[in-house]
Amino acid sequence: MSQFKVHILGCGSALPTLRHFPSMQVVEVRGKQFMVDCGEGAQIQLRRSHVGFAQLSAVFISHLHGDHCFGLIGMISSFGLLGRTMPLHIYAPQALEPMLQSQIDMFIHDLSYEVLFHAVDTTQQTVVFEDRSLTVETLPLEHRVPCCGYLFREKSTLPHIRPEMIDFYGIPVSQINNIKAGAGWTLDDGTVIPTERLTRPANPPHSYAYCSDTRYMPQLHERIKDVDLLYHEATYGADKADGAAKYYHSTAAEAAQVARDAHVKQLMIGHYSARYDDEQILLNEAKQIFPNTILSREGLSVEL
């Protein structure tokens, strides 16, 4: 079973429709859950996705447009009503902090947990979160307001032990961690059994790049080389290329160009304009350039 999943809670753009919720996702890595953007309806979508409220440890906001952050205060309030005690970390452009604090002061009393704000610099690619399992880096983007994406990189794990070899050589359980760390095992006659014989290779680490609202950036592919999954906004098709340029958004074809040039394994597009009743036209345009493209949709979970 994969330990790295991306759950799509919303994939629409600014204008509400009956088909899509605004931008929000949950990235799940080794049992830990992180939200990326938090549009309206986040609480409803969390329940529908069966993502546990209690497991959500941090929220990463790409920029301060409402369709990416209007759901935050409601979600914070609901977490309090549910008796949450674990701190919630918010990573976002600095300008959000005073507005969010004003909302908390106005609407929420006696909050049962801490909301810890971490300002991110949208102009720099830098690690803003790190634990034993992964790192999260900012990805500078070009939109009408300061904006960044986020790059999730899983850390390498230790190799898998081969139980049959441990039993065969009678190796004590107390030595398993040493063997995983690279130590061999010496038999009574002095023969050294190398760690490669006692273990199987670790699972390769996965990576996910979330590229929120941005105009086409020819150099972006250099920052996300070889990621397993790329989410890139594709608000418009070729028929609305002028609108994409005007409003600092991307077309499906431009998203596919980034995926192709970055040599990613899979592209997922989203942030669809309300002008499109059927996003298949966007998928077709992207596939002409990068065949391994899928449409994001509410309820979709992608395993890396």
End-to-end CA span? 10 Å
H and E string = EEEHEHHEHEEEEEHHEEHEEEHHEHEE
Helix residue percentage: 10-25%
Overall pLDDT confidence: 95
Globally, the shape reads: globular
Q: From the alpha-carbon coordinates, what is the Rg to the nearest angstrom?
A: 22 Å
Q: How many strand units?
A: 18
Structural class label: alpha/beta
Task: Enumerate how many helices there are, as a single number.
Answer: 10
Descriptive report:
The chain is an alpha/beta fold. 25% of the residues lie in helices and 28% in strands. The strands form 4 sheets. The protein has a 7-stranded mixed β-sheet. The chain has a 7-stranded mixed β-sheet with strand order 7-8-9-14-15-16-17, covered by helices on one side. The protein has a two-stranded antiparallel ribbon with strand order 10-13. Helix 3 (72-81) packs across helix 4 (96-107) and helix 9 packs parallel to helix 10. It is globular. 39% of the residues are buried.
Q: What order do the helices and strands come in, and which of them pair?
A:
Blueprint: E1 4-10, E2 24-29, E3 32-38, H1 42-49, E4 56-60, H2 66-69, H3 72-81, E5 88-93, H4 96-107, E6 115-120, E7 127-130, E8 134-140, E9 148-154, E10 160-161, H5 163-169, H6 176-180, E11 185-186, E12 192-193, H7 195-198, E13 199-200, E14 207-211, E15 229-233, H8 241-246, H9 252-262, E16 266-270, H10 280-287, E17 293-295, E18 301-303
Parallel strand pairs: 3-4, 4-5, 5-6, 14-15, 15-16, 16-17
Antiparallel strand pairs: 1-2, 1-18, 2-3, 7-8, 8-9, 9-14, 10-13, 11-12
